[in-house]
Amino acid sequence: MSWPTRLRERGEDPDPRFSFANERTFLAWIRTALALLAAGIGLEAFAPPLAVPGLRQVLAAALVLSGVWISGLAFRRWLRSEEALRERRPLPAPRLAPWLSYGIAAVALAVFVLLVVANLRG
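The line above is the sequence of Putative membrane protein; the predicted structure tokens follow.
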């Protein structure tokens, strides 16, 4: 049995507006994942060497892997929310959001500091 069939067997069809809103949220997570992938590739391809050798590659890899991780969890989030809508339960808390926001802030701060240090040296 396919996953759409299993999903439709649970509860009842929610108001389509809620399902479409859930789908838009899923697409926003996918856009975020694509942006992280692009940021990692861009950092590796276009950023000047940072103050610590090899750190640019580590930060780029962290961004790319974050994009992969978020992309993988986006569908799971959509499915859990759709199930909650069908069963008239509260929507699940977005557990990914704090990790994403703090992670991006940490990487951005690290890149900023390393670029400033590299410019002061060179």
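Note on the example: Residues 14-121 form one domain. The chain has one domain: 14-121.
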